[in-house]
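User: For a reading group we're discussing how well predicted structures match intuition. Take Tc1-like transposase DDE domain-containing protein. Before you show the prediction, I'll give you the sequence so everyone sees exactly what went in.
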Amino acid sequence: MMMLEAGVPQMEWPALSPDRNPIENLWDQLSRCVEGRDPAPQNLSDLRAALEEEWKAMPQQTISRLVNSMRRCCQAVLDI
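Assistant: Thanks. Here is the predicted 3D structure of Tc1-like transposase DDE domain-containing protein, as structure tokens, for the group to look at:
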């Protein structure tokens, strides 16, 4: 409130912007891979092992695509 009274402009900014954070997309992809496992992980140790296996199996192209998407995401924020 003080900032508005002082004339400081306020930017509209979504509280959560998972589409602007490539790690969220990566977690989603890892989650889907782990959820699709048969048998599903039964405990924390199994889950950790499954996540590590899926991470190692993820194609470098997928990771590169997510990293390279940052330029577009940052530009979209600047264009607001």
